[in-house]
Fold these 2 entries.
Entry 1:
Amino acid sequence: MRFHILTLFPEMVEQGLNTSIIGRAVNKGLLSIHAVNIRDYTVDRHKKVDDYPYGGGAGMVMQAQPVYDAWESIVEEIGYTPRTVYLTPQGPTFTQTMAKNYAKEKDLILLCGHYEGIDERVLEEIVTDYVSIGDYVLTGGELPAMVMVDAISRMVPGVLTNEDSGSTESFEGNLLEYPQYSRPEEWNGKKVPPILLSGDHKKVDEWRREQAILRTKERRPDLLKKAELTEKERARIEELA
Ligand code: SAM
């Protein structure tokens, strides 16, 4: 999958995404992350990319021309118009389900705003999806774009190896993941739950499922409402409540 990130700070996204699992997937050729500097496309002789908002008010607004030309350069390079996401606090909140869906795309353009945002007219021309990473305001779209690239990349086949497999993780089936333990068997007076040392895989799976349900009930009751549980599991939750 190929990510094209339109930004005023390309070094920020390039540096932030070249390590660990994502960096390894880029080296293997499973992903490519291409940061395009919007400033390179301004026709202003002082390389300006922002100006005051019409109607007054605080801050600066990114101008339409450099954003459009930078976007068009990507479309011309790849030969078709892919989905273009504008990272904005005004979009629906990014979820694991959205990450899985975006992972099916061949190319994805992520547009990062800065200052007070971007001239609405260019957004109307190029943006297909508006996405927020949460109900708070950041200084720029670079961190949200990196969050999206990371979460989407993990869903691209081959990016996660068996060692870091995502199949049983939080949000699968609207449940949070069960608690995890590693060596030693006892740390700080706390023992690993004995069932995990039993070697009985069926019992371990049952225990993990129950823990996942209990954890979701405790920490994210809103999610549990959407989870598919058996009658027996629902009864057990009531029993433990
Ligand atoms: N004036 C804008 C508003 O009130 O909606 C906020 C602009 S914000 C200071 C600058 C840029 O950061 C935005 O254009 C957007 O790209 C990015 N940004 C800020 N918060 C974000 C969030 N929660 N999710 C995604 N992008 C965000």
Note: Residues 168-240 form a domain with the Trp Operon Repressor; Chain A fold (CATH 1.10.1270.20).
Entry 2:
Amino acid sequence: MILVLAGGVGGAKLASGLAAALAPGELVIAVNTGDDFEHLGLHISPDLDTIMYTLAGIANPDTGWGQADETWNFMASLGKLGGETWFNLGDRDLATSVLRSHLLSRQSLSTVTAEFCRRLGIVHPIVPMSDQPVRTIVDSDEGELNFQDYFVRRRCRPKVRGLRFEGAEAARPSPGLEAALAAPDLAAIVICPSNPLLSVAPMLALPGMREAIGAADVPVVAVSPIIAGQAVKGPAAKLMGELRMPVSCVGVAEWYGDLLTGFVIDASDAALAGEMDAKVLVTPILMRCDADRLRLACEVVDFAALLGRNG
Ligand code: GDP
Ligand code: CA
């Protein structure tokens, strides 16, 4: 069994490849909830929804987030009434957040997520990283901002000075994540090409998480979200520069440090392979289509298996 750590759009691409490559029982996907927030009285879990919609085959192929064939009547009516419209919630997407919010009054986020996945026909378990609230707070040149204020409302424009994960100390890994980390058949942990600072860091901030990963004693393989010094999408490169990290796949590997057994970098970064402590796999890692996702997923699984045999 392979445990995957994923954020949203970048995470969903590799997670969907792994879901296609592996049989039920061979994959558990743990998802960042540091981006979750309360908005219009709703509990919104952007990364869980992105992973869920992608694996269900109903994600919007153009944006990577939200649902395909979306309509926007709710947003239009909301605006007419003077409601806040900076966070886009399509009509289909809205149903997820409304029902989740309703069910959360008596069920955990893990339970609600499992039920949604069952209804959507997803065969691989998707688990939130935690059932307790963890909220990413961005310290910027405009002061402290809630994550969605920074990411969506201010479109990542503020210069970032630091990040903290409010609630992390009091949270714990969800039952599904905890069980996967301790599972006797756990063979590898794969860190998706998600934003390390915004999507993976909240998971690593959970108490006991790093220790549990170490105790699992399996290869930990990450795929770089940075290709040729640039993020494929989003603020990863801008953020790394603002936090004075080398803006390259080397900076990502250094940030993960000795957590990593293996690191997967793009063919265009082949010259940097020698600069990393982890074992490196060099291969095309830009996923433009389902075939790219499946091919990379299979290569990552084989690489992890090889590291497991040699370790
Ligand atoms: P978010 O939560 O929606 O922001 O998504 P993630 O944190 O999961 O992923 C964002 C990261 O995915 C960005 O840093 C991108 O550079 C990276 N990314 C997106 N598409 C690809 C891809 O096709 N290949 C690789 N290697 N990285 C990607
Ligand atoms: Ca996210």
Note: The first strand starts at residue 2 and ends at 6.
